[in-house]
């Protein structure tokens, strides 16, 4: 089964979720019923309603301020894997300098886009409980929705939460946790304070556990959340939280992809995709538009300075990641005419490198080297010569950086390993060395979110 053109199929599911999560707002502007959607009070009554609602949940991820370009590009700009060379100087440009302020428009847009995605899943979960048709695949529908919700909370926590040294520490900050839908102005839109990181983590784990228990890998589709995708997300989350034994256990449950070891190394088709968002000519993203010049693009982004040099000699990923070394563009996103490049959310390469890293962290150096060499061999590199856990992990982290270029991962690797300052602070331009300010490891909460809740949604420290 392939999902195409989400936005055409998801009109009914849109509801009045344009409220997003500008929580507590009394502005007249948010009290407007969208003309191209039905009222939330109408609800879902059939399995067809729920199916359209589920498509709407996936559609929310495609928003240009979410996985349609904004979220992964923001985190790669922060990590200096992308260099902003266009004219968005007050948004992407400031993010690229790590000078982001709470009133940055992109900050607010991405926050709202992610909470809109969460709100759609909340509404689907609420409404699907009322459908009694025995032909309705309720558990599968709700499992997909809960995996989508977990994914969005993982992203919120990763960018705005945790602590300056990483994730999973006792003082970790969370985000507002909303598990019921916002459908009308009133009690549902009352301000909600930030939960702790631990509380958000509990909700993420509960959602992913439900998804793992109720999903299958079905017909092998990559456009829907499957059991393998949910397992890989759980492994990602536990790795991020430094729970290495748990991350290893979940990664081991993901079935290998046939032919992975001999497939093209990070080819443009990403043959190792476990879950990717699909776009179409009428349901577009802006990746190629931002990467390429006219005609068809605006060349807002180039590879980060020094990124080409990070590739070892002979690395097959270099001409994909940096198409015209040492600057140029990328071959990961190229479709400037149709703007329908898929976006990879979970790839099997990530599972392999999670197996390698968690094995090294738990003392199994043989497994760590074996899994690491799968990636190295695909990339055209010789087997690793590392013999210690520390050296293996250093190489594993490099392979993650090169393997997942422009897929929105490297910043979170720096954060979870507490190496933002030692990696970026040491090399940033002296005139803008904000990477030596640890408070900036957490992104600022949007100013409007703080203001309209009268400070109930507390700003991250020092912003």
From TrEMBL:
Signal peptide (residue range): 1-25
Family note: Belongs to the SusD family.
Domain RagB/SusD: 329-463
GO CC, alphabetical: cell outer membrane
Protein name, per record: Carbohydrate-binding protein SusD
Keyword terms, alphabetized: Cell outer membrane, Membrane, Signal
Compartment annotation: Cell outer membrane
Record-annotated SusD-like N-terminal domain positions: 97-239
InterPro entries: SusD-like_N, SusD_RagB_dom, TPR-like_helical_dom_sf
Organism: Hymenobacter coccineus
């Amino acid at each position: 089964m392939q999902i195409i053109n989400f936005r055409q199929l998801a009109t009914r599911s849109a509801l009045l979720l344009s409220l997003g999560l500008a929580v507590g707002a009394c502005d007249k502007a948010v009290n407007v019923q969208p003309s191209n959607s039905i009222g939330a009070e109408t609800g879902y009554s059939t399995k067809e309603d729920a199916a359209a609602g589920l498509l709407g949940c996936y559609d929310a991820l495609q928003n240009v301020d979410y996985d349609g370009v904004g979220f992964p590009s923001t985190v790669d700009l922060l990590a200096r894997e992308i260099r902003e060379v266009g004219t968005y100087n007050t948004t992407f440009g400031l993010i690229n300098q790590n000078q982001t302020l709470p009133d940055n428009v992109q900050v607010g847009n991405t926050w709202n886009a992610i909470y809109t995605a969460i709100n759609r899943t909340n509404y689907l979960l609420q409404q699907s409980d009322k459908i009694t048709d025995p032909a309705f695949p309720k558990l599968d529908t709700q499992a997909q929705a809960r995996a989508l919700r977990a994914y969005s909370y993982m992203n919120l926590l990763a960018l705005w939460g945790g602590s300056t040294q990483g994730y999973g520490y006792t003082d970790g900050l969370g985000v507002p946790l909303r598990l019921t839908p916002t459908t009308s102005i009133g009690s549902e839109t009352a301000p909600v304070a930030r939960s702790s990181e631990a509380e958000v983590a509990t909700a993420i784990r509960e959602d992913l556990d439900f998804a793992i228990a109720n999903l299958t890998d079905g017909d092998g589709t990559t456009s829907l959340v499957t059991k393998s995708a949910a397992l890989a997300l759980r492994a990602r989350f536990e790795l991020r939280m430094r729970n290495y034994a748990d991350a290893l256990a979940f990664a081991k449950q993901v079935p290998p992809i046939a032919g992975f070891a001999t497939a093209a190394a990070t080819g443009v088709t990403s043959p190792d995709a476990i879950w990717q968002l699909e776009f179409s000519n009428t349901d577009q993203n802006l990746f190629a538009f931002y990467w390429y010049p006219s005609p068809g693009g605006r060349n807002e982004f180039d590879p980060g300075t020094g990124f080409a040099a990070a590739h070892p000699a002979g690395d097959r990923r270099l001409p994909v990641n940096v198409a015209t070394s040492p600057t140029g563009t990328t071959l990961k996103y190229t479709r400037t005419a149709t703007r329908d490049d898929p976006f990879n959310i979970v790839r099997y390469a990530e599972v392999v490198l999670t197996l390698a890293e968690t094995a090294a962290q738990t003392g199994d150096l043989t497994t760590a080297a074996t899994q690491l060499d799968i990636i190295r061999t695909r990339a055209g590199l010789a087997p690793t010569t590392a013999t210690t856990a520390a050296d293996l992990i250093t190489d594993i982290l490099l392979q993650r950086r090169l393997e997942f270029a422009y897929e929105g991962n490297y910043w979170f690797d720096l954060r979870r390993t507490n190496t933002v300052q030692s990696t970026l602070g040491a090399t940033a331009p002296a005139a803008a060395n904000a990477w030596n300010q640890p408070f900036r490891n957490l992104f600022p909460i949007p100013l409007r979110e703080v203001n309209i809740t009268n400070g109930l949604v507390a700003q991250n420290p020092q912003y």
